[in-house]
Amino acid sequence: MPHSVNPALQPNTLKIAILGAAGGIGQSLSLLLKTQLHFPLKTNSTQRDKNHIHLALFDVNEDAINGVVADLSHIDTPVSISNHSPKTGIEDCLKNCSLVVIPAGMPRKPGMTREDLFTINAKIMSSLTDSIAQNCDLSKVFVLIISNPVNSLVPVMVNRLWSKYPQLSKGTNIEKRIMGVTKLDIVRASTFLHEVNIDADITPRTNDMPDVPVIGGHSGETIMPLFSQSRSYKSLDRDQINYLVHRVQYGGDEVVKAKNGLGSATLSMAHAAFKVVNKFVSLLLGNVDQIHGICYVSLKDADGSPIAPGAEQLLKSIDDCSFFSIPMSISKKGVTAIDFDIIDRMDNYERNEMLPLCLPKLKNSIATGSKFGSQD
Ligand code: NAD
Ligand code: LMR
């Protein structure tokens, strides 16, 4: 069974681990990565750092992951694949990984908030953090956290690495490479804006609608879609903006309700995560030196200093809220610059109505996650 073998990876292989790969998001994302990631390999560059991609798929549900990997392994693309479960060990999955994507954890059911998932998912995140600390190179690896509540689980991982693994994490700047994935909010903002038919010059032939930046966190009022930054802003009236903001903030609930107990967004999330992973693949293959995007990150390092240029200014504008989703530049070393200017470009409504609602809630979730992550 070739798919069950973890091949001896060549140094030129970019290895990506997906933890929770047998779940709704994990399966769809794995399919997209297996089928769509081959294109960078076709371009012709001998100078590229890496020229092969390997997907290492892990899930605690052994039967499910075995089946998913057997199935995916028949797809005729040059992306190689291996399956991992507690029986074979997570160690092999994580060893030599450059990128770890985490959709492991419980999804919501109707009537639940994302925060209701904290108790169970924070334990999962802690155990995965331990595995990452013990098996990955903390001075190089990137981690993308999809599991909810993102607002608290990113602080869980960052604080656990700082407090439980000071020797392993010290000097690695690992916090510059641990990112919460909030891209689905951006995807929704662009989609819903397009639906109200404002962006008249977008034709059906256009694959991608222009992004509307969404900053803050990933839950209710912590989600701050900045329609003032969209090119359609001038043609939107107050009622339309209120409708759009609310729809983006509670878009997740729409899907949870429609699935009626069968989970939350998986397909749109896999699409959003694929867009993010694709950029990181470009960076890690060596196709580009820098990427730009919006992720949810720690703005401070373990000593409390700002992680990158722009972080200090941002912290001043957001009442020292220590984790935030914000446009940034990222190199192979992690976050290199924070685009704090976007705060100055917000309109009065965003600055005076939305931000004051976002910050206390977000800070509360960060405190919960940081406290949990700092415990033994
Ligand atoms: P799912 O239940 O379909 O899949 C979760 C998978 O995680 C399962 O296969 C399960 O076996 C696995 N798992 C559980 N514990 C694990 C562990 N310790 N190690 C490895 N795997 C483990 O759920 P889903 O719909 O794929 O959602 C996953 C998470 O993503 C949820 O927490 C959900 O709220 C979140 N989510 C986030 C966003 C976002 O925008 N960031 C969007 C949608 C969903
Ligand atoms: C979403 O925004 O769809 C996800 O965070 C899942 C959820 O629970 O809403």
UniProtKB/TrEMBL annotation:
Q: Which reaction does it catalyse?
A: (S)-malate + NAD(+) = oxaloacetate + NADH + H(+)
Write down the InterPro entries for this protein, in alphabetical order: L-lactate/malate_DH (IPR001557), Lactate/malate_DH_C (IPR022383), Lactate/malate_DH_N (IPR001236), Lactate_DH/Glyco_Ohase_4_C (IPR015955), Malate_DH_AS (IPR001252), Malate_DH_type1 (IPR010097), NAD(P)-bd_dom_sf (IPR036291)
Q: What is its EC number?
A: 1.1.1.37
| Record keywords | NAD, Oxidoreductase, Tricarboxylic acid cycle
For this record, an example GO cellular component is: nuclear periphery
Classification via PROSITE patterns: MDH
**Could you tell me one molecular function GO term of this UniProt entry?**
L-malate dehydrogenase (NAD+) activity
Matching SUPFAM superfamilies, A to Z? LDH C-terminal domain-like, NAD(P)-binding Rossmann-fold domains
- Can you tell me which residues bind NAD(+)? 20-26, 59, 121, 146-148, 269
Domain Lactate/malate dehydrogenase N-terminal residue range list: 15-161
Q: Name one Pfam family in it.
A: Ldh_1_C
Q: Which residues bind substrate?
A: 108, 114, 148, 188
- Tell me if NAD is a UniProt keyword of this record: yes
Q: Which residues form the Lactate/malate dehydrogenase C-terminal domain?
A: 182-372
Q: Which GO biological-process labels does this protein carry?
A: gluconeogenesis; malate metabolic process; protein import into peroxisome matrix; tricarboxylic acid cycle
Q: Which family does it belong to?
A: Belongs to the LDH/MDH superfamily. MDH type 1 family.
Subunit structure of this entry?
Homodimer.
User: What is the protein's given name?
Assistant: Malate dehydrogenase
What organism, scientifically named, is this protein from? Naumovozyma castellii
